[in-house]
Amino acid sequence: MAIMKVIEVLSESSESWEDATAKGVAKASKSVDHVKSAFVQSQSVTVKDGEVDKYRVNLKITFEVK
Fold first, then answer.
1. Most C-beta atoms within 10 A of its C-beta, which of 5, 15, 23, 53?
2. What is the domain count for the chain?
């Protein structure tokens, strides 16, 4: 039986929500082994001078506990 754990990660990108997601998963994978999935819980943006400045995601990352 596998035991899974979930952590919450906040990530941002100046490119897109997809890029913010990829960056969050990549960064978490550097310190957490056996990452199995990521769920985008929410998306938001920051605005600067009336334009979208940063894309932000709140991720739930699931990994297997060995």
1. 23
2. 1
User: In the sheet that 35-48 helps form, which strands lie side by side, from edge to edge?
Assistant: 3-13, 51-65, 35-48
pTM: predicted TM-score of the whole model, two decimal places: 0.89
26-41: pLDDT as tens digits: 999 999 999 999 999 9
H or E stretch at 24: helix 17-31
Strands 51-65 and 3-13: antiparallel
Residue 27 belongs to what H/E stretch?
helix 17-31
State whether residue 18 is helix, strand or coil. helix
CATH code of 55's domain:
3.30.1660.10
27 lies in which domain range? 3-65
Beta-bridged to residue 57, according to DSSP, are 11, 43
